[in-house]
Fold:
Amino acid sequence: MSISRKILIALLILLVVIGLAGFLLTRGDTADLSIDDVAGTEPTLEQPDAEAIPTVQIAEPVGWEDGELPIAAEGLAVARFAQGLDHPRVLYALPNGDVLVTLTRAPATDASGITAWIADLLLTRAGATGDSANEIVLLRDGDGDGVADSQNVLIDDLDSPSGMAWRDGTLYIANHDEVIAVPYALGEDTITAEPEKLMDLPPGGGHWMRNIELHPEENKLYIAVGSVSNIGEQGMDVEQGRAMIHELDLDTGKPRAFAAGLRNPNGLDFSPWNGDLWTTVNERDMLGSDLVPDYLTDVAIGDNYGWPWVYWRDNFDRRVETPAPQFLTEYAGKPQFALGPHVAALGLVFTKEGHVMGDQFASGAFIARHGSWNRKPPSGYDVIYVAFDDNGNPIGKPVPVLTGFLNDDGTTKGRPTWVEWAGDGALLMSDDTAGIIWRVHAPGAQPGAGIEQVVAEPLAPRRSLEGLRTAFDEPEPAAE
Structure:
């Protein structure tokens, strides 16, 4: 057989494989439930339908036309705070009103094979691939008109940076594989000092973002690290230190595991009601378009939310091959609030004193839902508000704050990524594929008072058994 004939046959086989892959990837499970059905404190959880090939529906980003804006909820207005940025992800507001944003993508990988090729194809279509700028840019609104007047590269030569925090002249940054610290005085436009490594993190892998949050007392950092895999299919050895939140004591330099069993934790913020740490979590895939809901929940030291063996506390994922620990469901936490299936919940902030979002958004949490790649129809692609009651518990269903990202033809203008409070009380949101930072506020709103902290008095200890019934007491006579 001639070389040209062999090449022709190889090309035909390749075309058949590509065509078959394309056919299979356009099939998949269509949702039976609405996103709201699988959201809230008591979401509807259908029976799982394990998929050998994931449902795929990519919303290709096409950008925003000049003058186009997302659709803001009634009473709110939205405008562009900054634009022309190279894949902006995490936002962080400094005490002086300057805003930092990481320009970042996933770290480079040498993964090969058909699975890696398909993954790269899908991520490219979703606008998520390319070289990472590896920069933190400082945005400054000098005249207070709600638009950043300047964009300065504060620091570069980072490695897929995500989370940021600042205290006492030090800027903390989470690269995908480490937490670093560098001296930084508020108001400076550039950083020239050499960063110091504070701790290593499990590098890159499937979920590569590493958000950090500073404790209100400013003595500890909390670092969110996602899993490599969907359900531990590569073995649990590669998941060491992943699917969890770490705590770093800034005074002693000692890290420890804080909470685990969280497939891909992202947004972090402390409850203004009681000071508890809360997080958004991306749950597992390939159980159908209606499962499993991403969620918002509180996390305390030692909490475990069951990944990869269970979801929503007591629903076993029978696909997981690694034996489950004993007494897993007895100790697994139940998430506080479902955010909908496959919405890719990322950035999170609670209502803050001084906000200008109006009374309707004065007691809750704002969350950026980055959007699905594996649900039919797509889910997410918006910013939502979750209301909380006076005791600091989430209630109701998610309320749209910013929508209009998805087009009728299945493309998307952008993808909401992170949320943060601006110094003037407006809400900022990064749109990574569009390279825009949006600013949302309620025109004419007075600065909000913020959340009143819940103070509970401890129960007084009992000094006697008087008034308590025991198993040895005579039963009370039945009422006639």
Remarks:
- The chain is about 10% helix and 30% strand.
- Residues 14-25, 468-473 have pLDDT under 50 and may be disordered.
